[in-house]
């Protein structure tokens, strides 16, 4: 090989590149010896039947093709190994069993070329050995490219057990409430799985670093630990993901999809908080530094109500509501969610109207009851319309006591209380409306001080109060 290295590839900056360039054909070329040699072995057995006897004089050509392509595979494989990207143990065995395949197939060529009848046992042992070695070599080759765990990753647990592997990892259930989000298990490890383990796994251990589990990550890489507990700034892992993207040390390398700003912030928080193997975000984050980010990162802010399918509403019910002064519209083409509006009716709303509405509880997501004569007492029924996303109660005589009935509206995103008597009662209500995005509070009994205080506490809530919002 030194000889090749010494040849002057004048047109290339780095002569080793051309070798690895050829080396990368190895995964393509290896399929040739596999095909030829398996075919040769089968044909060799078949030729024992009288029917296939006529192919016998040609069999040694198959062995010749097999050994020649095995030679190419070995050569290109060697060139590829020069890149140093592979697990050295597996590589050692893969390389030598590949060379064995070459030697055995050459031997087959030689013994079958001579049509002599002698030494049958030796001949057939050679054929069987070629078949076994080629399977073994191929398997190791697969492990090198895909990682040791690739083949049995999806195997049933009893089979994994026989191979000495631990049972399959149970996938983490999808996080649906913020309080159950685990900083490492639900956030950090999935980021590693998605963006880092393709190069940092047991088969392809770049920088001698595994990012497949907490303990491996904490063990570090060729230059020691990559996470300094409590100090993100001093952690190599954090440095690598925050460098400019074109920096040589930037991770993930080779232009792979980088971590997002949110992901980087979450990792920073995780390291600073103590780089624990598990722990709930909401417990660790007493100062609320990262909770909001995690909330949106996990998609918990998206209203899941519209992903549900609801049944078509009862048409007689719709008719009676329309007769009573409601305007009812369907909101989407492929679902039966409804928008109901009573604000244009000349009547005041009555309890019986609300009873009718309750029968539409499943479909009703937008409701406009502005200037409709709604009272605190009515709110108790309204509070049961639990799929409401938007509710307009402006211009009604309702107060703090009444609005507490709205606390079960878990999907509510917009609440209009403009021109009502609402005041400090909001302090109790707001924490319960976890999806609320905007609230209209002008012309209520809420003063400037309270409005500012609420805005400081609920940073992601748009409070429409004076001319401008406090965003
Ligand atoms: C395309 C392959 C690739 C991907 C994807 C990748 N890395 Fe790397 N990583 C490497 C290579 C190659 C090295 C060794 C060379 C070096 O130190 O830059 C390395 C080295 C490192 C090191 C230094 C280890 C040591 O001890 O020196 C850290 C830390 C690291 N990677 C973290 C990450 C993180 C975090 C991700 C995911 C965001 C990631 N890597 C994704 C290829 C990759």
From TrEMBL:
Protein name: DUF2231 domain-containing protein
InterPro entries: Cyt_c_Planctomycete-type, DUF2231_TM, Leu-rich_rpt, LRR_dom_sf
PROSITE patterns assigned to the protein according to its UniProt record, in alphabetical order: LRR (PS51450)
Record's keyword terms, sorted: Membrane, Transmembrane, Transmembrane helix
Organism: Ulvibacterium marinum
Residues covered by the Cytochrome C Planctomycete-type domain: 196-252
The keyword Transmembrane belongs to this UniProt entry's keyword annotation: yes
Transmembrane segment boundaries: 28-46, 58-80, 92-112, 124-142
Residues of the DUF2231 domain: 25-145
The keyword DNA-binding appears for this protein: no
């Amino acid at each position: 090989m030194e000889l090749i290295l010494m040849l002057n590839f004048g047109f290339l900056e780095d002569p080793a590149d051309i070798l690895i360039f050829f080396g990368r054909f190895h995964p393509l070329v290896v399929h040739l010896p596999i095909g030829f040699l398996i075919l040769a072995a089968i044909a060799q057995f078949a030729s024992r039947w009288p029917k296939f006897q006529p192919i016998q004089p040609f069999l040694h050509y198959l062995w010749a093709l097999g050994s020649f392509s095995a030679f190419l595979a070995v050569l290109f494989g060697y060139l590829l190994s020069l890149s140093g990207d592979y697990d050295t143990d597996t590589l050692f065995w893969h390389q030598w069993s590949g060379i064995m395949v070459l030697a055995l197939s050459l031997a087959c060529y030689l013994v079958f070329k001579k049509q002599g009848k002698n030494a049958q046992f030796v001949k057939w042992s050679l054929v069987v050995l070629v078949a076994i070695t080629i399977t073994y070599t191929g398997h190791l080759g697969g492990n090198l490219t895909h990682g040791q765990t690739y083949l049995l990753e999806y195997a049933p647990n009893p089979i994994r057990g026989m191979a000495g592997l631990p049972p399959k990892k149970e996938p983490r259930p999808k996080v649906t409430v913020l309080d159950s989000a685990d900083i490492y298990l639900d956030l950090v490890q999935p980021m590693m799985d998605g963006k880092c383990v393709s190069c940092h796994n047991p088969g392809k251990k770049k920088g001698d670093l595994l990012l497949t589990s907490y303990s491996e990550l904490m063990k570090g890489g060729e230059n020691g630990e990559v996470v300094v507990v409590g100090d993100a700034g001093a952690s190599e892992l954090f440095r690598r993901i925050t460098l400019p993207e074109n920096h040589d040390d930037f991770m993930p390398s080779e232009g792979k999809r980088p971590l997002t700003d949110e992901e980087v912030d979450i990792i920073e928080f995780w390291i600073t908080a103590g780089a624990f193997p598990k722990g709930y975000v909401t417990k660790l984050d007493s100062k609320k530094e990262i909770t909001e980010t995690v909330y949106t990162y996990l998609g918990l802010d998206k209203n899941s109500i519209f992903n549900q399918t609801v049944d078509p509403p009862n048409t007689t019910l719709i008719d009676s509501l329309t007769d009573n002064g409601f305007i009812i519209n369907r909101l989407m083409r492929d679902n039966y969610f409804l928008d109901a509006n009573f604000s244009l009716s000349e009547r005041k709303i009555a309890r019986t109207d609300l009873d009718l509405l309750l029968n539409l509880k499943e479909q009703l997501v937008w409701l406009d009851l502005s200037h409709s004569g709604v009272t605190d007492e009515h709110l108790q029924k309204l509070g049961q319309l639990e799929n409401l996303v938007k509710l307009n109660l402006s211009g009604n005589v309702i107060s703090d006591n009444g609005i507490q009935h709205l606390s079960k509206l878990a999907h509510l995103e917009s609440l209009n209380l403009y021109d009502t008597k609402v005041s400090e009662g909001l302090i109790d209500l707001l924490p319960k409306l976890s999806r609320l995005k905007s609230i209209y509070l002008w012309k209520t009994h809420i003063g400037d001080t309270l409005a500012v205080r609420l805005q400081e506490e609920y940073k992601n809530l748009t409070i429409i109060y004076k001319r401008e919002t406090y965003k």
